[in-house]
Amino acid sequence: MKFPQDFKWGVATASYQIEGAVHEDGRGESIWDRFSRTPGKVLHGHTGDVACNHYHLYREDVALMKELGVNSYRFSIAWPRIYPTGKGQVNQRGLDFYKRLVEELLNSGIEPAATLYHWDLPQALEDQGGWLNRDTARYFQDYAQTMFEQLGDAVKLWITLNEPWCSAYLGYGNGVHAPGKSDPNWYLYAAHHLLLAHGLALQAFTSLNLPGEIGITLNLSPQYPASDSPQDREAARKADGFQNRWYLDPLFNGFYPQDMPEFLSVVAAKIQPGDFDLISGDLDFLGINYYSRGVVKADGRGGYQALPPAGPVTHMGWEVYPRGLYDLLLRLHEDYGPIPLYITENGAAYPDVLEQGRVHDPERTAYLEQHFAQAARAIEAGVPLKGYYVWSLLDNFEWAFGYERRFGIVYVDFETQERIVKDSGRWYQSFLKCNSKCNG
Ligand code: IFM
User: Fold this and answer.
1) What is the DSSP letter of 308?
2) Which of 263, 353, 408, 437 has the fewest Cβ atoms surrounding its Cβ within 10 A?
3) What are the pLDDT digits (tens) for 91-109?
């Protein structure tokens, strides 16, 4: 596998999934604190109260990254640590945590890549409507501006939002995620305000003339027709519109997909003049979270139906389909490029067990190796792929599944907080060593 010399190889995490320390140093309540404490919302009633205790163990975790040999680390900043109620007075102690983390990374030769929003909205803003309220986008711009001013010299890679589809659809469309609201119209309103928040953050970044780069991360999944019939192809087009184009088109073209009239008529109520100029502001890169594909067929009523996975699946029930990554990268390059691309997440959950101090996870190693190979093929085909972040460094709080789904290349014993590098982590380590020898 050939990768460019300056390729970023990293691991990724997110604040609520690993930090714990939810009551410390003035952090405010987030929607995930509230949601995870609501009975029946998270498997086994798990919460992020302690998670991986990364807030206290971040030095050890950075040392682990150094040992693995990654050159970049994608983490997210918890908005309620910076602004406990989402706005107003900055909480210096919260800010200091990220300054310490960034310093530790830089001293270890690891480049920080910061995501501003990975789903932990301050609960106080949710109490005023959350992402259904247009003002939230303005508060996000203020928070983003604070972070750019405070960390803009040290952090050179910024991601505004992680997976707005999830925040909007799972949070406001079907209620599986915080804040647990469910209404199809609310989904579209929330998505529009999230995109607007992204655009406003981009505007703040540009106005500061900072040295770094800024982008957004989308969870993208190629949608294949179950057959070659015109009906199934049309079904795949619709699924692609819902999953992918509803975000890609406004970001790159400045308008929502015109072939989705039923969505357009709903969202129209929330669009104001100038919104698309902000949303389609110049991106330095696009971040892609790729886990699996979809295969769909026509449902006979003008809609589509997803087929069950045809191949092997991970513990999440997601089909392992490495070829989908190649197809996706080429498609993005053709339809929306040229734009530098990063794989900001890719990885797999398996029901790992600790046996005599080791975790043998050959499926995860195979998953990563096969996906790396598809990324290398895409680069060979001319796609400007600049980096790859494995999800995740640590086993962590997998949202509605609590701690039951393990994505880490490092095993976490949640009783003792001991970290044990899995076989897949060792494999990644030797891949990186070999890669820097062969391509460095
Ligand atoms: O754990 C999540 C992450 O927070 C966002 N992307 C998908 C991962 C696995 O579900």
Assistant:
1) P
2) 437
3) 999 999 999 999 999 999 9
